[in-house]
């Protein structure tokens, strides 16, 4: 089977474009995943769990380290299966990667009420 130069060029251009798109997609997800647990908590949790919110006020200091671990292991998914970000039409648990959820969990546990550095996550 012989391949003509135009066919070969189109194939190479298509492959290059696919590789470029894949590289761009991967670099975008790496950027999103590289956000700190604190930033992810502020952007994805605090928006619904601020002081006086209908969903209840929660910050890392609201629970102990063991309570946060139990929450993330057993309660996060059932409690948030239908939760969506305010003003968005996408479910919260579909927006966050497993790595991002782990970063949020680490932030909550590391700054829980009984940790060495309790934190409320208020303000900037």
Q: Could you explain how this protein is built, in words?
A:
With 124 residues, this protein is mainly alpha-helical. It has two domains: 1-34; 36-124, Orthogonal Bundle (Cytochrome Bc1 Complex, Chain D, domain 2), CATH 1.10.760. The chain contains five helices and no strands. The chain has helices at residues 5-33, 37-44, 65-80, 92-95, 98-110. Helix 2 crosses helix 5 and helix 3 (65-80) packs antiparallel against helix 5 (98-110).
- Rg value: 21 Å
Low-confidence stretches: 9-33
Structural class: mainly alpha
Number of domains: 2
Largest sheet properties: none
| Proportion of residues in β-strands | under 5%
What is the CATH class of the largest domain?
Mainly Alpha
Count all strands and give the number: 0
CATH fold field value of the largest domain: Cytochrome Bc1 Complex, Chain D, domain 2
User: What level of helicity do the residues show?
Assistant: 55-70%
Distance between the termini: 64 Å
The coarse overall form would be globular
Q: SSE string, helix = H, strand = E?
A: HHHHH
How many individual helices? 5
The overall average pLDDT, rounded, is 80
CATH architectural grouping of the largest domain: Orthogonal Bundle
């Amino acid at each position: 089977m012989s391949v003509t130069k135009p066919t070969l060029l189109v194939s190479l251009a298509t492959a290059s474009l696919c590789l470029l798109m894949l590289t761009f997609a991967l670099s975008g997800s790496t950027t999103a995943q590289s956000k700190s647990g604190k930033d992810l908590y502020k952007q994805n949790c605090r928006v619904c769990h601020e002081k006086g919110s209908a969903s209840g006020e929660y910050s890392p200091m609201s629970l102990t380290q063991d309570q946060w671990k139990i929450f993330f292991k057993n309660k996060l998914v059932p409690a948030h299966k239908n939760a969506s970000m305010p003003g968005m039409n996408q479910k919260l648990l579909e927006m966050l990667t497993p790595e991002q959820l782990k970063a949020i969990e680490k932030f909550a546990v590391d700054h829980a009420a009984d940790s060495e550095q309790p934190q409320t996550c208020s303000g900037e």
